[in-house]
Amino acid sequence: MAMTFMRAIVRAAGWLTVLPMLYLIEPFYRIRIGTMYTQRIGHLAENAETFIRKMRMEGFPPRTGYFFFGHNPANRQLYKMWLRTRTYPVRFIDSRLGTWLAFTLRPALSKTRFWEACKETGVEYRAFDDTPPVLYFTDEEEERGRRELEKMGIGRDDWFVAFHARDNAFLSAWRPELKDHWARPVNQGRNVDVRTMLKAADYIASKGGFAIRVGAQVEEPLPPGLHPKIIDYASSFRNEFMDIYIAARSRFFISSLSGIDSIALAFNVPLVTTNHSPYNFARYNRRTVMLPRLLKDPETGQQIPFWSAQSRGYFVGWERVSSNHETWGMFNQVPSSEDDILDAVKDMIDQFEGRPPISEAKEIQDAYGEMYLSHKPDHTRAGRISARFALKYRDLIVP
User: Fold this and answer.
1) Which CATH superfamily is domain 139-397 in?
2) CB within 8 A of 14, min separation 6: which ones?
3) Burial letters for 190-202: b for 16+ Cβ neighbours within 10 Å, e otherwise?
4) 80 vs 144: CA distance, rounded Å
5) What is residue 190's three-state secondary structure?
6) C-alpha dihedral (20, 21, 27, 32), degrees to nearest 10
7) What is the CA 188 to chain-centroid distance, rounded?
8) Which of 115, 305, 375, 389 could crosslink 110 through cysteines, CB 3.0-4.6 Å?
9) CB 285 within 8 A of CB 268
10) Within the chain, how many helices (H) and strands (E) appear?
11) How far apart are CA 307 and CA 367, in angstroms?
12) How far apart are CA 166 and CA 188, in angstroms?
């Protein structure tokens, strides 16, 4: 009750003092206020990255300053990297009081020109294609990262790939009071079995690379007896600094649509994005390889072609990347199989070794883009479905 009363007082004071002051200053210097999205690592990595990249591409307006307040971050290393960023005229400010004031005044400020949401929509393809990363490591941090890798047996001339499988562990520990929310099908449906990635990890090891399983918290360690170049970093070596360094320095990142893959994207690291949904959106980075989830009828178990699902309204017209769409429950989304994940990794390694997909696969990739992604004009600057997936499931993609 006391806190509610205090917020009401601050909001009233904001209307009477802060807003008039901002309007008075506006002709001389435009101030924009917002908050950092610090509680989830994906938003902490991607929201500010997207905002600054777009501004760099479009040009910052003159006589305008942006001030974003944050506190209590999901990852302290990533947060520190934002606080030291000097991209004029953007400033990230660590302040518990400033964050509280910004949230308290948001109902009033968000109705004015003075509030800057600093959000991303998942379709800023040009910004991620045309501009370099904002975040960076210092020389000391680069040296620390290499030393930490050496502790895991990864030499300075070795290459590695991070892989991550979303499960219940992190969210259940982060906000246990929301266990009913995490148990909803729309959330459970995004979880995957890390064992489906082990064939791909073994293939990476066979090619001379290291496969590093990452994650802030995981339900189970990897099973014993794996190739020695498959490393369960999440269970044995994990720390907040290396969460960022490994994702940023991976040759590519095998993801399962969880927040940690946003770190890789922020550093222009391409993804093998498994279990991709919704299927009518692409991920950032032209080299990204996508594996859409296959669809089945929940009553009959019959496989549903993408073109049939689209004709029945599945995700049609959805203009923002989210699984919270009214048509989400129309079909069962089938997790990516271990063989399809392996094929997608082979596609990615083909890219790195300069082998383009065969013409038939490229035609199906282009058809997928035209049929399911073209509602966003810049989709050609984003990821493409796996070439091997395209050939294998051509009848589900093209009528």
Assistant:
1) Glycogen Phosphorylase B; (3.40.50.2000)
2) 104, 105, 108, 109
3) bbbebebbbbbbb
4) 15
5) coil
6) -100
7) 18
8) 115
9) yes
10) 19, 13
11) 11
12) 10
Q: What is the pTM of this model?
A: 0.92
349 forms beta bridges with: none
> CA-CA distance, 47 to 55, in Å (whole number)?
12
Contact 44, 80 (CB under 8 A): no
Q: Which two tokens stand for residue 111?
A: 């109705």
pLDDT in tens, the chain (399 residues): 555 666 767 666 666 688 889 999 999 999 999 999 999 999 999 999 999 999 999 999 999 999 999 999 999 999 999 999 988 899 999 999 999 999 898 988 999 999 998 888 888 999 999 999 999 999 999 999 999 999 999 999 999 999 999 877 666 655 666 666 555 655 555 788 999 999 999 999 999 999 999 998 888 999 999 999 999 999 999 999 999 999 999 999 999 888 899 999 999 999 999 999 877 889 999 999 999 999 999 999 999 999 999 999 887 766 666 666 778 788 999 999 999 999 999 999 999 999 999 999 999 999 999 999 887 788 899 999 999 999 999 999 999
Spell out the SS3 assignment of 310-355. Answer: HHCCCCCCCCCCCCCCCCHHHCEEECCCHHHHHHHHHHHHHHHCCC
Whole-angstrom distance, CA of residue 350 vs CA of residue 344: 10
